[in-house]
Amino acid sequence: MTARRLTQYLSRYGIVVAYVLLVLAVAAQSDRFLTKRNWLNLLDQAAPLGLIAIGVTLCIIAGIFDLSTGSVFAVAAVVAAKVAALNPWIGLTAGVATGALLGAFNALVMSTTGVNSFIGTLSTSIIFRGIALLTTSGLIVSVADRGYKTLGTETFLDAKLSVWVFATVAVVLGLMLARTTLGRSLYAIGGNPEAARLVGIRVGSVRTFAYVMSGTCAALAGVLTSSRTGSAQADIGIGLELSAITAVVVGGTSIFGGEGAIWRTVVGVILLQTIGNAFNLLGVNPTYKQVVQGVLILAAVSIDHLVRRRNR
């Protein structure tokens, strides 16, 4: 195998190889790691981050960033908890709809101002977080109705409903990205937006879709989390946007746009969650988790840069 082929292979499937090695290493050190209970808990904990990361994946493939997802997560949770006073299921629906609207707002701001998405969504994240704070007055919003907790706490085939929601969204958007014209348009825009525009792709509309889906996924994650605890507050979800981007990049989606896949992001999310799980089981100082994540990001970006340079 030539050096170029080896590099390409590692770029495509290195995350899977790394994850298998991690599982084998942790399993050799802890008898509890491969138990059904541990894996169900791991997947349940990964679901909110996984949902956010899936939405972020669509944006990054399209060549844009969404740094507002952590704030959208909080606003959606607060709205859901507030409206749940009327009806728990209307509250959950209102929370998800709020995320879609905030995603559309992001798209509107970026298209009308022409500001870079990194700076633009960083700014809107501050606005959204402020809205959550004003709505709650800094207090915790609690929901008394037990029906509100159904989505976040009930199980199906031993797995929490949050896991099934995560899996469903991953499959649906994964197929959309891989098999539809819209998915191919996202790749084309991320690779070269001007060339995509010249062949008739409506760049603005496609990127709007990416922002809306990112907001919807973040809101769904916030609603699930709020349903699990039966409460919401303005400061939840801080830093989740960075964790989501970490999972996307570690999974092998190019930070430069135009390349990636939902399945890669799912593996990236579970990899990060497994690292945290392993630290807990093995009694390792959790402070080192940040170091490990930083090394993974650097390695992923470096491999991506190396592959792009070799393919020129």
* CATH class categorisation: Mainly Alpha
Let me know the largest β-sheet.
2 strands, antiparallel
- Tell how many strands the DSSP assignment holds: 4
Count helical runs. 13
Arithmetic mean pLDDT: 87
Strand proportion, as a percent range, falls in under 5%
Q: If strands are numbered along the chain, what order do they take across the biggest sheet?
A: 1-4
H and E string: HHHHHEHEEHHHHEHHH
CATH topology call? ABC transporter involved in vitamin B12 uptake, BtuC
Gross morphology is globular
What oligomeric state do these chains adopt?
single chain
Number of domains: 1
- Derived from helix and strand composition plus strand pairing, the structural class reads mainly alpha
Residue runs with pLDDT of under 50 for 5 or more positions: none
Radius of gyration: 20 Å
CATH architecture: Orthogonal Bundle
Helix content: over 70%
Distance between the termini: 20 Å
What does this structure look like?
It is globular and about 60 Å long. It has 312 residues and is an all-alpha fold. The protein has one domain (15-311): ABC transporter involved in vitamin B12 uptake, BtuC (Orthogonal Bundle). The model has no long low-confidence stretch (mean pLDDT 87). Strands 1-4 form a two-stranded antiparallel ribbon. A two-stranded antiparallel sheet has the order 2-3. It has 13 helices and four strands. It has helices at residues 3-29, 36-61, 69-83, 88-113, 117-136, 150-153, 161-179, 181-191, 193-198, 203-229, 240-250, 262-282, 287-311; strands spanning 141-142, 155-156, 159-160, 231-232.
